[in-house]
Amino acid sequence: MSRILAAIVATSFVIQLFAAHGFAEQLTPGSATIHVETEDWPWWRGPTRDGVAAAGQSPPMRWTQTENVAWKTPVPGRGHGSPTVVGNQIFLATADEQRQVQSVICFDRNSGKQIWRTDVHTGNLVKKGNTKTSHASCTVACDGQQLFVNFLNAGAVHTTSLNREGNILWQKKIDEYVVHQGYGSSPALYGPLVLVTADTKAGGAIAALDRQTGKLAWKHARPKTPNYPSPIILRAAGRDQLVLAGCDRIVSFEPLSGKSLWDIEGATTECVATIVTDGIRVFSSGGFPKNHISAVRADGSGDVEWENNVRVYVPSMLMRDGHLYAVTDAGVAMCWVSETGERKWQGRLGGTFSASPVLVNDTIFATNEAGQTFIIRADPKAFELIARNQLGDEVFATAAICGSRIYTRVAHHGNDGRTEMLYCLGGAE
Prior knowledge:
Elements: H1 3-20, E1 69-75, E2 84-86, E3 89-96, E4 101-108, E5 114-122, E6 141-142, E7 146-153, E8 156-163, E9 168-176, E10 188-190, E11 193-198, E12 204-210, E13 216-222, E14 232-236, E15 239-246, E16 249-253, E17 260-264, E18 276-277, E19 281-286, E20 292-297, E21 304-308, E22 318-320, E23 323-327, E24 332-337, E25 343-348, E26 358-360, E27 363-367, E28 372-377, E29 385-390, E30 400-402, E31 405-414, E32 417-425
Antiparallel strand pairs: 1-32, 2-3, 3-4, 4-5, 6-7, 7-8, 8-9, 10-11, 11-12, 12-13, 14-15, 15-16, 16-17, 18-19, 19-20, 20-21, 22-23, 23-24, 24-25, 26-27, 27-28, 28-29, 30-31, 31-32
């Protein structure tokens, strides 16, 4: 499909896309319109917000540093945010610690050539935090016209909007932020709003800003505990809900108004992974002070239907056909029945995982921190490892899979130190 034709059908496609995956996105003329296409990966966890790529794709199953590489391009600085792919552009957040600059970079989707780079913050990078964190762990969100990115800078979280030419449109300070491990929450888009979280041990906030102007639409204070997930909009219990886990609770808000829908115990204190749903329950996972996965009724009843002590702290989980799939931080793939928590299988992959798995058709792509990608069959009957691929030697960012290509942020270590690269894997789109 040509880009011109795709643009013409974009709005109708979005309505069909969200309807097919249980979403009721507020798509109205003007500032609330969100333009995404089948070939796009417009925000954290992809177009349907759950790590599931559009059906019918055929990304490569095997690759090396030369085989099935359409292009590769250097990424200055360091970051753990995922690639955002919209139209002919790819957007990445990055940070140059030597220059003390946090930036957004735009690359050409077809060639990998850098188109523009905009410095969002200069100076005041926070030095504290976990050794695995970065100063650019946010995934950029794009509504088709504007970009939205979060950075921790000068002791506070700021959300910035840019246009697709790289010009800064507005910037809003969300809240003060005291670092415990780091900051990596990505913005979520819903109707006319961009939704942002900043959980911190000194107290934080969840806030909604007008996408066009940055004006505050609503804001709620959060508990005084460290926590790391991104806000997510899920269609659960028959309505759209903004759901967040951590701070010892799972909370749900009406996305447009900020009205509290329900607030229950059902999570541990520190979570990283993004919540998923089967439409009836929401599933949270965390890793401090306890390891847990919990299945909570999304109707506000407060019922925790099942819980286990599996450590899926950093990688987010996947839902497919009534089954929950996950890769633990320690490198074990697992499958449960979403209704009961019955474990169907587990299989050892190996390594430590921070990036989240991505589901394409009936296959799961999961990459560990050492750059090994394991391709697993998403079938509750048995664990099946289809392929194993090596690229680079350090990966923290989740891949974007769209247009039958894999866009992945990889680091190489050599005599000249650490070099970060953006790879495009696959043939012609």
